[in-house]
Amino acid sequence: MGGSCAQRRPAGRRQVLFSFLLPLFCPALCEPIRYAIPEELAQGSVVGKLARDLGLSVLDVSARKLRVSAEKPHFKVDVESGDLLVKDRIDREQICRERRICELQLEAVVENPLNIFHVVVVVEDINDHAPQFDKKDIHLEIVESVSPGARISLDPATDPDINTNSIKDYKINSNPYFSLLVRVHSDGGKYPELSLEKPLDREEQRSHHLTLTALDGGDPPRSATANIEIFVRDTNDNPPVFSKDEYKICLSENLPPGTSMIQVTATDQDEGINAEINYYFRSTTQSTRHMFSLDEKTGMIKNNRSLDFEDVQRYTMEVEAKDGGGLSTQCKVIIEILDENDNSPEIIITSLSDHILEDSFPGMVVALFKTRDRDSGENGEVTCSIGRDVPFKIHSSSKNYYKLVTDGALDREQTPEYNITITATDKGKPPLSYSTSVTLHITDVNDNAPVFHQTSYVVHVAENNPPGASITHVIASDLDLGTNGRVSYSIVASDLEPQALSSYVSVSEQSGVVFAQRAFDHEQLRAFELTLQARDQGSPALSANVSLRVLVDDRNDNAPRVLYPALGPDGSALFDMVPRAAQPGYLVTKIVAVDADSGHNAWLSYHMLQASEPGLFSLGLRTGEVRTARALGDRDAVRQRLLVAVRDGGQPPLSATATILLVFADSLQEALPDLSDRRAPSDSQAELQFYLVVALALISVLFLLAVILAIALHLRRSSGSTTVGCFQRGFCSKSGPVVPPNYSEGTLPYSYNLYVAQTGKTEFNFQKCSEPLHSTQDIVCGDSSGDLIPLHVGDDLTSHPQTLAPVSFVFCIFSNLVASYISKVLLHLCI
Ligand SMILES: *[C@@H]1O[C@H](CO)[C@@H](O)[C@H](O)[C@H]1NC(C)=O
Ligand SMILES: *[C@@H]1O[C@H](CO)[C@@H](O)[C@H](O)[C@H]1NC(C)=O
Ligand SMILES: *[C@@H]1O[C@H](CO)[C@@H](O)[C@H](O)[C@H]1NC(C)=O
Question: Which domains does the chain have, with CATH numbers?
Answer without folding.
Answer: 5-124 (2.60.40.60), 137-338 (2.60.40.60), 346-443 (2.60.40.60), 451-553 (2.60.40.60), 554-664+736-762 (2.60.40.60), 683-732+770-830 (no CATH)
